[in-house]
Specification:
The chain contains eleven helices and seven strands. It is of the alpha+beta class and about 290 residues long. About 35% of the residues lie in helices and about 15% in strands. The chain has two domains: about 90 residues, Phosphorylase Kinase, domain 1 (2-Layer Sandwich), CATH 3.30.200.20; about 180 residues, Transferase(Phosphotransferase) domain 1 (Transferase(Phosphotransferase), domain 1). Strands 1-2-3-5-4 form a five-stranded antiparallel sheet, covered by helices on one side.
C-alpha cells in the first residue's frame, strides 16, 4: 500500500524533468510573463522552452493545467513535451521554426502571402480549435500571437489554457492594460464568461489579423473605446481587398448572442472548402 507521501511525489510524474536536462541556446522572445527560448533537451532534441517569471502563476495550478495540456494531442496543437514545475516554471514544447503567426505576417515570409495560403492557415487553426471544442476545452487567448508557424506554412495553436492561470492583477482585472481586450468576446471581457463560443469570437478577430498581415484590430481605437463600441453593436468593417464572404464569416463569429456563433467544426469545413464552395471565381490581386 503506497504511503500518501509517495503519491504526492508521483503526481510530478514522467513529464517532470530536471532543469539540468535543458540547454537554453537562443532567446526567441520576451513577454510580460516570461521568456521563450530555443534549446535542446538531453543534448539532442530541439525544443522550445517557455520560462515563467516567478509569481506569474502558482506552481500548483500550473501543474493541474499541464495535466490537461498532456491530454490534448492533435496535429494542430503545439505538443507539450515536459515541465519543470518548481519556480521558475519551465514549459517544454515542440519547436516551431518560424515563430509566431503575428511576427510571420508582419515581418516574415507571411507579408507576401495571398488569400489561398491565408485561408489555409485559418483552416488549420480552425481544425485545432475544432479538436479543442470536441474535447470540451477552451483556449481563452486565441490570437495570432499565440499561433506558431513551422515549415510549409504549418500552423499550430500554442498557450491553450494558460490565460486563466495568470496571477497578474492588471491582466486578470480584464480592464487591465495587458488584457487582450480587442480579441475578447464582450461577455468574456465584461462578465468573465469564457466558453468555446468566446473563442469563436476571437477566431473572427484572428481572421482580420490574417487578411491585414498582422494589423492590430480596431485601428485607432483604445481598449475602452472598443469595449463601448462593440457593446453598442459596432463591428470591424470588411478589410481592404478581403472578399465579402470572408467578412460575413467574421460577422457570424461576432454575433452578440454567443449561441448564434458557428462551431469550429463548421468554421473548419467552411474554410477548407472556401475556394470550391464559396469563392470559385477567386483571382489573386496585388494585395490578396
Amino acid at each position: 500500500m503506497p504511503r500518501l507521501a509517495d503519491l504526492s511525489v508521483k503526481t510530478k510524474d514522467v513529464w517532470e524533468i530536471p532543469r539540468e536536462s535543458l540547454q537554453l541556446i537562443k532567446r526567441l522572445g520576451n513577454g510580460q510573463f516570461g521568456e521563450v527560448w530555443m534549446g535542446t533537451w538531453n543534448g539532442t532534441t530541439k525544443v522550445a522552452v517557455k520560462t515563467l517569471k516567478p509569481g506569474t502563476m502558482s506552481p500548483e495550478s500550473f501543474l493541474e493545467e499541464a495535466q490537461i495540456m498532456k491530454k490534448l494531442r492533435h496535429d494542430k496543437l503545439v505538443q507539450l513535451y515536459a515541465v519543470v514545475s518548481e519556480e521558475p516554471i519551465y514549459i517544454v514544447t515542440e519547436y516551431m521554426g518560424k515563430g509566431s503567426l503575428l511576427d510571420f505576417l508582419k515581418d516574415g515570409e507571411g507579408r507576401g502571402l495571398k488569400l489561398p495560403n491565408l485561408v489555409d492557415m485559418a483552416a488549420q487553426v480552425a481544425a485545432g480549435m475544432a479538436y479543442i471544442e470536441r474535447m470540451n476545452y477552451i483556449h481563452r487567448d486565441l490570437r495570432s500571437a499565440n499561433i506558431l508557424v513551422g515549415d510549409n506554412l504549418v500552423c499550430k495553436i500554442a498557450d491553450f489554457g494558460l490565460a486563466r492561470l495568470i496571477e497578474d492583477n492588471e491582466y486578470t482585472a480584464r480592464q487591465g492594460a495587458k488584457f487582450p481586450i480587442k480579441w475578447t468576446a464582450p461577455e468574456a471581457a465584461l462578465y468573465g464568461k469564457f466558453t468555446i463560443k468566446s473563442d469563436v469570437w476571437s477566431f473572427g478577430i484572428l481572421l482580420t489579423e490574417l487578411v491585414t498581415k498582422g494589423r492590430v484590430p480596431y485601428p485607432g481605437m483604445n481598449n475602452r473605446e472598443v469595449l463601448e463600441q462593440v457593446e453598442r453593436g459596432y463591428r470591424m468593417p470588411c478589410p481592404q481587398d478581403c472578399p465579402i464572404s470572408l467578412h460575413e464569416l467574421m460577422l457570424q463569429c461576432w454575433k452578440k448572442d454567443a449561441e448564434e456563433r458557428p462551431t469550429f467544426e463548421y468554421l473548419q469545413a467552411f474554410l477548407e472548402d472556401y475556394f470550391t464552395a464559396t469563392e470559385p471565381q477567386y483571382q489573386p490581386g496585388d494585395n490578396l
